[in-house]
Amino acid sequence: MSIKVAFYTFGCRLNQAETAIIQQSFGESDYQIVDYRQSPDLMIVNTCTVTENGDADTRRLINKMRRINPEVKIALVGCQAQVQKERLLELPNVQWVVGNERKMEMAQIIAENPAAAPQVITPTIRKKSFTVPFIGFDDKHTRANLKIQDGCDFFCAFCEIPYARGRARSREFDDILHEARQLAAAGHHELVLTGINIGTYNDQGRSLVDVLTALESVDQLWRIRISSIEPTTIAASVIEKMARKNKLCRYLHIPLQSGSDAILQAMQRKYDVQEFVDFLNFAAQAVPDACLGTDVIVGYPGESEALFEETYQLLLELPFAYFHVFSYSDRDHAKSSRLDDALKVPKAEIARRSLRLRELSNRKRQVYHQQFIGNVEPVLFEQHKGGYWSGVTDTYIRVKVRSERDIRNQLLPVRLERLEQQVMIGSLADSH
Ligand code: SF4
């Protein structure tokens, strides 16, 4: 009888890409892959440690799983496993804690130790180029994630990722192309390049631009999207490619984190405000309609009201379409967690500042969307729901149209007509 296994992913796109790959390694002869609500015998949770919510979310999921099936065996894998190690074994039903170095081998680890004593496997993460053992087919989504890089050498003061994910390393160039061809042939016409610090990609002298150039010639691959990319790592040639509107989506998510030089310096970021502004303006001019987004951390230790105001004013002025707002929280391995308590910003104050930024982001998103009304833009359709087909433009605008035809996974021109709660309503421009 096959074992029912479910997968659950917390955190970033890279985690999603990796879960898709781990899932492929659980063969159909031994396992039946089910939704986590369908009372699985086994549950693989790919964890996250970026914010304190990551920890709380893991605990909440475990409690929920135990209500669904009190006997469920849980494997916690990935970032939280890597940094918290044995501590996680104290959680109920947790049988395996496996860090990032070996999480891809989960199927094998379970096969070798199906019911024995709980196991913790968190070896040091090696710094060398890597390959990925399976193709990350994703039958639930049109877009697929393509992992090209892992780890980071930047050691920003607030961040635990270099400890959870190890040092920067790149996926072998040919291995990326192999997976991209398979995914595109299987109908994933848009691929999202993921990693921790993808701008530092380097495999034997080949850079991110070389990856993009090679991917542009993959048959049936219509769109390539870059996920979050660090400022200071984006070559001008990437922006030039975007401006050419070939396959590279006009979309850039560049984490600013703070608009105050004093805070950027304390965070040990690699740029100052002026450098960031110059780059963003260069990108905005080179690719006029590009969707530019960012991350910002609110309440970093020492962020006074005046320093926060610098961030607010900068975000107000810069040509961002949106921002993701994160509340600062101490992470065990991050340097900032050892800063003097007197510098810490009270939680209520962090919540108040975050709300102001979220409201600003909503207003900016509205303005960004509105400029497209009346345009005809290609939309890659993903799903049919509530009487509408929905998909996204290359600039990541969510678009809904009515159509009697099955247009899933088709790239079709749409006339954008009006906005309804941040979703663009349009009509197929090729309707007859
Ligand atoms: S660049 Fe900084 S914030 Fe980003 S993963 Fe590296 S250390 Fe963390």
Topology:
Blueprint (H helix, E strand, L loop, with lengths): L2 E7 L3 H12 L6 E3 L8 E6 L4 H17 L4 E6 H6 L9 E5 L7 H7 L6 E3 L21 E5 L1 E2 L10 H5 L3 E2 L2 H13 L4 E5 L13 H9 L6 E4 L9 H8 L7 E3 L7 H6 L6 H14 L4 E8 L6 H13 L4 E6 L19 H24 L5 E10 L2 E5 L5 E4 L9 E10 L2 E6 L4
Parallel strand pairs: 1-2, 1-3, 3-4, 4-5, 5-6, 7-10, 10-11, 12-13, 13-14, 17-19
Antiparallel strand pairs: 8-9, 15-16, 15-18, 16-17, 18-19
Helix pairs in contact: 11-12
Description:
β13, α11 and β14 form a beta-alpha-beta unit. It is globular and about 60 Å long. The strands form 5 sheets. The chain has a 6-stranded parallel beta sheet with strand order 2-1-3-4-5-6, with helices on both faces. A 5-stranded mixed barrel has the order 15-16-17-19-18. The longest helix has 24 residues, at 347-370. Helix content is 31%, strand content 23%. It has helices spanning 13-24, 52-68, 79-84, 106-112, 161-165, 173-185, 208-216, 236-243, 261-266, 273-286, 305-317, 347-370, and strands at 3-9, 31-33, 42-47, 73-78, 94-98, 119-121, 143-147, 149-150, 169-170, 190-194, 223-226, 251-253, 291-298, 322-327, 376-385, 388-392, 398-401, 411-420, 423-428. It has 3 domains: 3-121, Response regulator (Rossmann fold, 3-Layer(aba) Sandwich), CATH 3.40.50.2300; 143-370, pyruvate-formate lyase- activating enzyme; 376-428, Nucleic acid-binding proteins (OB fold (Dihydrolipoamide Acetyltransferase, E2P)). It has 432 residues and is an alpha/beta fold. The model has no long low-confidence stretch (mean pLDDT 94). Iron/sulfur cluster binds next to α5.
